[in-house]
Amino acid sequence: MPAAFFVVRATVADPSRRKAFDEWYHSEHLPDAAKAFGVKKAWRSWSVGDPAVHVASYQFADQASLDRAVGGEAMKTLVADFDRCWPDVTRTREIFVLAEEFAVG
To answer: Which Gene3D superfamilies match (predicted)?
Structure first.
């Protein structure tokens, strides 16, 4: 079974709120989500082209694991926490399944 990835794209439109969002995501949300989901790995990035765009990615062993995580109670709790802390931040979610992996060396 190929790895699956849950990707959340958030837009923090107000530049003055980005540092607080970054700190909250680093210290609370990413660790909480990674633990609740039981992921293999999680990481996040800020867009260079659009500094308002933040992307968090969570790697699961397979799509079945991902589906269980995002369909469960933990997801509802994480979404509610995000909405409470950042009601003005819009976001989208997408699921990807690994099609190919290539390593040099």
So the answer is: 3.30.70.100
One-letter amino acid of 29: H
Overall residue count recorded for the chain in this entry: 105
Cα 57 to Cα 33, 40, 54, 91, 105: the distances in Å are 10, 11, 10, 13, 25
The angle, 0 to 180 degrees and rounded to 10, between the axes of the packed helices 30-37 and 63-70 is 120
pLDDT in tens, 10-47: 999 999 999 999 999 999 999 999 999 999 899 999 99
pTM of the model: 0.93
Do the bridges between strand 90-97 and strand 53-60 make them parallel or antiparallel, or are there none, so unpaired?
Answer: unpaired
DSSP letter at 17? G
